[in-house]
Amino acid sequence: MAFLEIGLKETIEHGSFTDNSPATFSLTDEDHTIANVVRFTLNQDPRVTFCGYSIPHPLEARVNIIVQTTGDPAREVLKDACQNLMLMCRHVRCTFDKAVEDFKASNVVKAMKIDSQDSSGDDSEESE
Amino acid sequence: MGQLPPHLELQRSRVSCNKDAPIHTESIQYSGAYASMGIDNSSRLDRFSNNFRVEVVRLNEDDMEFDMIGIDAAIANSFRRILIAELPTMAIEKVLIANNTSIIQDEVLAHRLGLVPIRVDPRLFLAIVENDQPNEKNTIVFKLHVQCKRGSPRITVKSDALKWLPNGSELVKETRNATSDSSSKPETYTYFCCSQETIPEFVKNPIIPKYPDIIIAKLGPGQEIELEAYAVKGIRKTHAKWSPVATAWYRMLPEVVLLEDIEDDLAEELKSKCPVNLFDIEDLGKGRRATVARPRACTLCRECIRGDDWEKRVALHRVKDHFIFTIESTGALPPEVLFTEAVKILEDKCERMITELS
């Protein structure tokens, strides 16, 4: 799918070579849209002791995400959080599509019922 | 897994809307928040999958209202932000004006043309990059040629005067190169290899502005407008004309709880106080009692808890994980498709983050 890129995207990890459990990830060309959700998913992970995000300056599209874990490398934990988020999104999409289909189907049945008001007979197999 | 005591459960799952201000508005996300009680607050994927539900309330061609239950405010807000700002649409970007003798200035006319919503599926087009030539895969060409003859009354130029040119631009470029091969096709400002009419989606639905009655300009006698407009793909972050939704918003489900039995006169008073008629009076044998009939319609005006003592009788809450989403589309895509695309964009962002971290 053609993506509309505004500027070059990059991610910089600020951390220490010896201890890789706390780290700060600086993402360019991102804003609250992705940072808040990632922060939420990180919080749900029991391996995370502290996480947060900040936007250093509102005119510059850059986000700093801080992660501190109970020993696991911060990069892995962040990747797992993104994976979880992707799976959640996929589940949301499936549930939503199914709900829309069910709604459209039940509307069709309702229209049919109104049309065939005279003809008796139970055409309500697809009740919701 | 144990249950939280009721007051903590209320704090965790409801926003209490008191008379002066709401409290407990932030969601308790930390996985170890209730660790001392032995309760795991982390939402693992399986629990999310089991609890998450979507219920569609209203679905029209242009707007929809649906409920999302079991999701957090952070994710709902992300969807809302993506719906508003990051879904690509087509809108007029370049306007080549051949003749404009109307009183509307060139740039004002071009600005107005850019804001006209176009009924076309933006997923069928590619985004145009800096040095790309406009071709049939990334540009839509419209033509506007209106003239008000001398002696005739003033005319209003509406958006249905914009005609789609599936074969590309008709304005010929002036080439100084006289020795260039005299090809049968003179060079125009776009480089269409084939007509856009051959694409099957456009055979059934030709590309037109969504609303044919948008006033673009007004012409007096003797005035003329002749121009070509090129529409390209963009997102609302760049300019508001590329917005796929008129707006998209959500609210949390309101909950009205009667803390004690409200009878007779008090019940009548409560019913008359509420401007949206939430409460109903049910007739018991020995008296009348108030019940909450339509909590969803509550606008949280707090009329029912105004006055002495009413706060002890009625409590207003909002359910923190039940969102009533409303999406109003401008017409390019139907609203349910817009939401699905927004979720896909969030997935793509996560995927990009994962690839960058590896």
TrEMBL record, chain A:
<dbReference type="InterPro" id="IPR008193">
    <property type="entry name" value="RNA_pol_Rpb11_13-16kDa_CS"/>
</dbReference>
<dbReference type="GO" id="GO:0000428">
    <property type="term" value="C:DNA-directed RNA polymerase complex"/>
</dbReference>
<keyword id="KW-0804">Transcription</keyword>
<dbReference type="InterPro" id="IPR036603">
    <property type="entry name" value="RBP11-like"/>
</dbReference>
<feature type="domain" description="DNA-directed RNA polymerase RBP11-like dimerisation">
    <location>
        <begin position="23"/>
        <end position="93"/>
    </location>
</feature>
<dbReference type="InterPro" id="IPR022905">
    <property type="entry name" value="Rpo11-like"/>
</dbReference>
<dbReference type="InterPro" id="IPR033898">
    <property type="entry name" value="RNAP_AC19"/>
</dbReference>
<keyword id="KW-0240">DNA-directed RNA polymerase</keyword>
<keyword id="KW-0539">Nucleus</keyword>
<protein>
    <submittedName>
        <fullName>DNA-directed RNA polymerases I and III subunit RPAC2</fullName>
    </submittedName>
</protein>
<dbReference type="Pfam" id="PF13656">
    <property type="entry name" value="RNA_pol_L_2"/>
</dbReference>
<dbReference type="InterPro" id="IPR009025">
    <property type="entry name" value="RBP11-like_dimer"/>
</dbReference>
<comment type="similarity">
    <text>Belongs to the archaeal Rpo11/eukaryotic RPB11/RPC19 RNA polymerase subunit family.</text>
</comment>
From TrEMBL, chain B:
<dbReference type="InterPro" id="IPR050518">
    <property type="entry name" value="Rpo3/RPB3_RNA_Pol_subunit"/>
</dbReference>
<dbReference type="InterPro" id="IPR001514">
    <property type="entry name" value="DNA-dir_RNA_pol_30-40kDasu_CS"/>
</dbReference>
<comment type="similarity">
    <text>Belongs to the archaeal Rpo3/eukaryotic RPB3 RNA polymerase subunit family.</text>
</comment>
<feature type="domain" description="DNA-directed RNA polymerase RpoA/D/Rpb3-type">
    <location>
        <begin position="63"/>
        <end position="356"/>
    </location>
</feature>
<keyword id="KW-0804">Transcription</keyword>
<dbReference type="InterPro" id="IPR036643">
    <property type="entry name" value="RNApol_insert_sf"/>
</dbReference>
<dbReference type="Pfam" id="PF01000">
    <property type="entry name" value="RNA_pol_A_bac"/>
</dbReference>
<protein>
    <recommendedName>
        <fullName>DNA-directed RNA polymerases I and III subunit RPAC1</fullName>
    </recommendedName>
</protein>
<dbReference type="InterPro" id="IPR033901">
    <property type="entry name" value="RNAPI/III_AC40"/>
</dbReference>
<keyword id="KW-0240">DNA-directed RNA polymerase</keyword>
<dbReference type="GO" id="GO:0000428">
    <property type="term" value="C:DNA-directed RNA polymerase complex"/>
</dbReference>
<dbReference type="InterPro" id="IPR011262">
    <property type="entry name" value="DNA-dir_RNA_pol_insert"/>
</dbReference>
<dbReference type="InterPro" id="IPR022842">
    <property type="entry name" value="RNAP_Rpo3/Rpb3/RPAC1"/>
</dbReference>
<dbReference type="Pfam" id="PF01193">
    <property type="entry name" value="RNA_pol_L"/>
</dbReference>
<dbReference type="InterPro" id="IPR036603">
    <property type="entry name" value="RBP11-like"/>
</dbReference>
<keyword id="KW-0539">Nucleus</keyword>
<dbReference type="InterPro" id="IPR011263">
    <property type="entry name" value="DNA-dir_RNA_pol_RpoA/D/Rpb3"/>
</dbReference>
